Model the fold of this input.
Amino acid sequence: MLEARFTEFKAAAYAPKKLLNEYKAAGKKVIGVLPYYAPEELVYAAGMVPMGIWGSNNKTIARAKEYCATFYCTIAQLALEMLLDGTMDQLDGIITPTICDTLRPMSQNFRVSMAKLQKMPTIFLAHPQYRRPAFGLQFTIDQYTNVRRELDKIAGHEMTDEDIRAAIKVYNKFRQARREFVKLAGEHPEAVSAVNRSAVLKAGYFMEKPEYTEKLNALNEELKALPASNWDGVKIVTSGIICDNPVLLKIFDDNKIAIATDDVAHESRTIRVDADEEGDPMMALAKQFANEDYDVLLYDEASSQNRRGEFVANLVKESGAQGLVLFMQQFCDPEEMEYPYLKKALDGAGIPHIKLGIDQQMRDFGQAATAIQAFADVLSM
Amino acid sequence: MSIYTLGIDVGSTASKCVILKDGSEIVAKSLIDVGAGTTGPARAIDAVLDAAGMTHEDMSFTLATGYGRNSLDGIAHAQMSELSCHAKGAAFLYPDVHTVIDIGGQDVKAMHIENGALVNFQMNDKCAAGTGRFLDVMARVLEVKVSELGDLAEKSTKRIAISSTCTVFAESEVISQLAQATDKCDIINGIHHSVANRVVGLVNRIGVQDRVVMTGGVAQNKGIVDSLEEGLGHIVYTSPLTQYVGALGAALFAYQKALKQQR
Done:
């Protein structure tokens, strides 16, 4: 039964284009949402389907080179590639957050290219650096209000506050189910492989949220009913922006390395905080962003205290993992810059780790396999 | 009755084998100058068994390592990463080793060893600069054999700066130097320092602690070893068995596994 459920999530995770076709055939409007912290709730509240765009493990960069600097990460470049090569022509619009140093200028590459080719509207979104003070919250509300108006134009009708409150409830349930799954997958690595774990989480970016949450809750119930795990391999915590390549993740499964939990943007970083279900829904969404924390991309007024490093080190200790694997995306400046602080915290806590350099155009993982296998040896000795 | 184990190191450019008796005595070894995806591994296995006057059935356990370690189904009983095996082999040859440097065909590895076991390591980024492949490319441009690089560098009277950032750019620089009629020996000296600079940065990330041992075929190049010693400020030891360290480590792990099976 578990395998059947995983197969269903994998089908969605590995073939989002098929889902996009189905949504369009059903007369739905679909909005592409780039990484990350975009208020997807607004897309849902507008009666449209949000689909995450986090690059591709199957494409290579060709057309995007016309617009991109060489030092843009492959996640951003491959997102543009798919917008240019026709893969995502059916989208009714995209939201382009500007949360990192690549996405900021990249938002203009999206805007210019999509306008030039008359493909789709692009909705610009800038998050504030100071997200917690009153002026920061107001800035977020202003930005989100702009996103809301632009989505209204695409939807052809105005969403109400009640629509947004209903969307928040749907998304809170969605996040709760995902957090529960992350916990259960860490407790039952004998039942949830690294490949399946990733596929389940990835599918959440493409499936319609209520359906996904229902299916995930059913999976969670089955996992809860399992007997205590007899796992005799090692456990690690993963960190980085994204690590969803099944070929790479299979190396973990082959070497009996389980993922206890993660500090990955594509996985847990985006589901840690829920939004208030009562009161002004725009303020609720602004506060939700304000309450996000321990992220490489978020400004930390107390950064000299290395709170994030400590947070990740504690994540490893509390999850029962023996080490950490950092997936370092090539040309990801924020992650590279932050790495010495993470290393300091991990070394200080006596937690072994390895840093694997990856990008989404990689097809051969021979070197990574060597490092992962050696790391398993180190952890099990 | 003695226990014989076979370690096979299928690298990207060479295949090496070691047969070990009772986890302590090297009975035979072999090396074929082609690696993964070629006839090299099979030829190296035939050669080492011939040299020992034994058959594969005489081996209690066979363990594969190296880039092509997964390609020996039906021959190897298990496989381990070359990092673990190089660490094991180096600690066998130098029991007080703490730092191991292995420059392979396409990887550079820096390992920290405690009590003979691998505890930390660093590998190069996805880039050929600083690897054995870098030396292959440069030797081809310079029209010399890789094995001649060390001797030629000794004749150098001055060092030419060669980029350590990128193999392709470095190749262009070397061609440019040749066009300016710069002495080949001086260029090779620069190439060795370019490789060493890259490796020193990697080794420093895990912290250099004596004794420092370099393993793998590139350790036969005295110019590289000298450049590394200069960059690290530590003596770098190399063994006459340097090319066999991975296979030796594999044979040692094979011995441990054979003992475990007997229990």
